[in-house]
Design goal:
The complex is a heterodimer. Chain A is mainly alpha-helical. Chain A has five helices and three strands; from the N terminus they run αααβαββα. In chain A, strand 2 and strand 3 form a beta hairpin. Chain B is mostly helical. Classes of the chains: A mainly alpha, B mainly alpha.
């Protein structure tokens, strides 16, 4: 049986046994079921489904944290009288190849305040990103590649 | 407790929406204004909607709100990306204190000029 199906069945069992026939009850069951599967399969080599769910959950948490932190930084710049920004356009070399991965990466870069993806080169090897804070271009590129791109690859592979 | 969380969510959402509005006025060029509005308003609207979902505590309302947040998060960056790209290829200048312009240096822009200056796609 696939891990995904097991997880759904465990969630349904949880709903039936606790009598909580609601979306919240199903969600709780799904989380508990996932934990059970995770414990049961630990050490026997992670299955694709379990590690993928972990990658997705980690990705969402990481993204929400980035979103809030970066928003606060921009808010600080907006509300204080002097401008602290050093804006410009930086070329980020791309390792991801498929359309979907490039789209998700560009979308997430745009959603992080201070950065705006402007253009993908015709050969799809470079993403041009407008950033408000270029103190160190190499550090910015490294941050995007190791933070966002690595996680996008984990989710889609 | 619950009321406090709702108040924090609504207050925080309003804060980011106001900041986005001030940012549109205060920032010096189009690209930074786009930066300010898209994200701050995405976060602001999501926080306010989250507060509303918590207030009503109803599966139908929560489902709709989850869908609205997903659609905002999907569409806002696409709009910002297309506006910024169209602006750049139409020759809207960067702020005079910008430190770097890899896109101008790469020659992608000139290629487009030779093709007829269109912003295709």
């Amino acid at each position: 049986m696939t891990p995904f199906l097991s997880n759904i069945l465990l969630a349904l069992a949880w709903v039936a046994l606790t009598g909580t026939y609601t979306a919240g009850g199903f969600f709780t069951g799904a989380v508990v079921g996932f934990l059970v599967l995770w414990i049961a399969r630990r050490g026997r080599g992670t299955t694709g489904y379990l590690s993928k769910i972990q990658a997705v959950a980690g990705f969402i948490l990481f993204f929400v944290r980035e979103l809030v932190l970066a928003n606060l930084r921009v808010a600080h710049d907006i509300l204080t009288p002097r401008h602290h920004m050093t804006p410009g356009i930086v070329a980020v070399p791309l390792d991801v190849e498929s359309d979907l991965e490039i789209t998700v990466l560009a979308t997430i870069i745009t959603l992080t305040p201070g950065t705006l993806s402007l253009h993908v080169a015709d050969d799809r090897r470079t993403l041009y990103v407008h950033s408000m804070y270029i103190d160190d271009p190499e550090a910015l590129v490294r941050g995007i590649k190791e933070g966002f791109e690595r996680r996008v690859r984990e989710v889609f592979r | 407790m619950r009321d406090t969380i709702i108040a924090i969510l609504l207050g925080g959402g309003t804060f980011f929406a106001v900041v986005a509005a001030i940012g549109v006025v205060r920032f010096p060029d189009l690209y930074m204004r786009l930066s300010a509005t898209t994200k701050a308003s995405t976060l602001g609207a999501s926080l306010i909607l989250g507060g509303v979902a918590l207030f009503f505590d109803d599966a139908a309302v929560t489902g709709k709100i989850a869908a609205i947040i997903v659609f905002i998060v999907l569409t806002a960056p696409v709009a910002a990306h297309m506006l910024g790209r169209a602006a750049y290829f139409s020759g809207v200048p960067l702020w005079k204190e910008s430190v770097r312009d890899d896109l101008g240096a790469s020659g992608e822009w000139c290629k487009r000029e030779e093709e007829g200056g269109g912003t295709e796609g």
